[in-house]
């Protein structure tokens, strides 16, 4: 006898077929991410899934966004890809002080996909299961007004919510300056409740200790209380499998 989750997945597969698409090559964990994102409503999850399929086919036709497609975003070395956290999630670090609002929005959007895909793929052992997640740090240390990019952050979160449902395990925001609080309030309006619940703004010693413990000292760079070295995402050259799509 099917349990509630199995019944929801079965119904979602049928709903996707009614929308003219197929779930044949996707495992249950992938479909469950969309169901969770839509409160286990099979029809809404199916609609979201089909929209994701269409987006993926048009935006990432080759299955991957290569370094050569995002040269302007890589040159500043602002994103780093570390090892796995204590619970096995790949860690992405974004240093906001090295970021400047992009003049090429298409390239920026491709960069968002590039970094999310590469981070998620870095945790795949052999074949994608479908429920892989990532952990992230947004470091606002030494950020100036010239680095503030509310539009870019909103774009990143919108991509996460629309095309990478349930891929974010946790986001830690470090060193938030006072002037950025009002910027964050604007950005937060675009975030779903489920996304906001995964974000921790580290503001005191106790939260910092929790942050270090959850990420793990072996993966966390020295400047954040760990023992690892920073590794720019373009310097991670291992061959990772392309994500489903």
UniProtKB/TrEMBL annotation:
InterPro entries: CRAL-TRIO_dom, CRAL-TRIO_dom_sf, CRAL/TRIO_N_dom_sf. Residues 67-232 form the CRAL-TRIO domain. Pfam families: CRAL_TRIO. It comes from the Eukaryota. PANTHER family: CRAL-TRIO DOMAIN-CONTAINING PROTEIN, OS03G0850700 PROTEIN. This is CRAL-TRIO domain-containing protein.
């Amino acid at each position: 006898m099917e349990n509630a989750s199995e019944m929801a997945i079965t119904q979602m597969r049928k709903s996707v077929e009614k929308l003219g698409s197929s779930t044949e090559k996707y495992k249950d964990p992938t479909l469950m991410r969309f169901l969770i994102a839509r409160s286990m409503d099979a029809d809404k999850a199916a609609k979201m899934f089909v929209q994701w399929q269409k987006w993926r086919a048009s935006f990432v036709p080759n299955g991957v966004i290569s370094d050569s497609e995002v040269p302007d975003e890589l040159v500043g070395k602002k994103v780093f890809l570390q090892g796995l956290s204590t619970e096995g999630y790949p860690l992405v670090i974004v240093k906001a002080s090295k970021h400047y609002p992009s003049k090429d929005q298409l390239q920026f959007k491709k960069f968002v996909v590039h970094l999310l895909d590469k981070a998620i793929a870095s945790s795949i052992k052999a074949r994608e299961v479908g429920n892989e997640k990532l952990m992230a740090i947004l470091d606002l240390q030494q950020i100036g007004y010239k680095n503030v990019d509310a539009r870019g952050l909103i774009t990143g979160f919108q991509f996460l919510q629309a095309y990478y449902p349930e891929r974010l395990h946790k986001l830690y925001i470090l060193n938030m300056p006072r002037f950025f609080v009002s910027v964050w309030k604007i950005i937060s309006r675009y975030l779903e409740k489920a996304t906001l619940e995964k974000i921790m703004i580290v503001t005191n010693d106790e939260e910092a200790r929790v942050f270090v413990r959850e990420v793990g000292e072996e993966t966390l760079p020295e400047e954040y209380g760990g023992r690892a070295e920073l590794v720019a995402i373009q310097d991670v050259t291992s061959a990772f499998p392309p994500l489903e799509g």
